[in-house]
Amino acid sequence: MTALSPASTADAPHTSPDHEPGLRRGDSPSRGRVGLLIHQIRYEQLSFWRNPQAVIFTFLLPVVVVTIFGAVFGGDEKQDFFFGMSSMEYYTPTIAAVSVLGACYGQLAIVLSTRRQTGLLKRLRATPLPAWVYFVGLLAHCVLVSLIDVVLVIGVGALYGVALPAHWAAIALTLVLGAASFCALGAGVASLVRSAEAAPALVQFIQFPLVFISGSYFPIHAGVLNTIAGLLPVKPFNEAMMAPFTHGGGYQWKELGVLAAWGVLGAVVAVRRFRWDPRPE
Q: Is 223 exposed, middle or buried (0-12, 13-18, 19+ CB in 10 A)?
């Protein structure tokens, strides 16, 4: 596990009643906060890229999955099974969505649980680094990782003849909102986990059923199941990602609204239940 951010330890100046944490003498408060945030994002990125296993799993797995689907279902023929789309028009956005879910929800919940149990969060809380800088830095890091994942999956889809999205702004908004919502849900789940050992099991227990009933790996044609999945966060995210790929659709406001609602719920749970110190045994 990585050490605490330099922004939260050695580089943090001593504070006084008239000197805001994280500011050097002569700096404006806004400039100091932006500097801390940039430093925290850089720390999270360096921590991630220096962990080869995390990098390989995060980026290689979705590429391998979409490549396998392309080899199995290859071809650009429209099929009723895929709701009038070709197989890769269907799988490219759904696998991209799964990669965002894994990077923002799954990994974040496990990382926060592990850092809390090892005492890193407790020590971090004692530093001058504001809590919002820490969490916004994590969010920005997850958005950057998710962006790379989505670009890689779209690139593989293009090799199988999938047209590039016609509405990049809709893709960007969906990606950012989805990343933020799944990060909030990941933080909410982390606040409920009692130990780092239990975190992966709880994360997967929630994630796997959602991914399957939401049609990420195969289309769901059962009306009742689709209705239920549409009220949960993954299927709306899939559909909001899929629209710009398949029929030139733009913003899917209904689906984005459902996604945002789940993000708010996750944030409320995280704020009310989040602990910086390890739970007592």
A: exposed
230-244 per-position pLDDT tens digit:
999 999 999 999 988
The set of residues, in sequence order, having a beta carbon less than 8 Å from that of 16 and lying 6+ positions away, is: none
Range 96-119 burial, b when 16+ CB lie within 10 A, else e: bbbbbbbbbbbbbbbbbbbbbbee
- Mean residue pLDDT of the chain comes to 85
User: How many folded domains does the chain comprise?
Assistant: 1
Please state, in angstroms and rounded to a whole number, the distance separating the CA atoms of residues 75 and 71: 9
Q: Are 177 and 100 in contact (CB under 8 A)?
A: no
pLDDT in tens, 179-192: 999 999 999 999 98
Task: Name the residue range of residue 48's domain.
Answer: 29-273
| Helix (H) / strand (E) containing 188 | helix 168-192
3-state secondary structure of 186: helix
Residue pair 244/165 in contact (Cβ under 8 Å)? The answer is yes
User: Does any domain span residue 11?
Assistant: no
Q: Which residues of 12-39 are buried (b: 16+ CB within 10 A; e: fewer)?
A: beeeeeeebbbbeeebeeeebbebbbeb
Residue 191: inside a domain, yes or no? yes
d(CA 174, CA 144): 14
Amino acid at residue number 134? Y
Q: Position 182: which residue type?
A: F
Residue whose entry in the numeric block shows the structure tokens 């990669």: 99
Q: What is the DSSP letter of 277?
A: S
Which H or E run includes 247? none
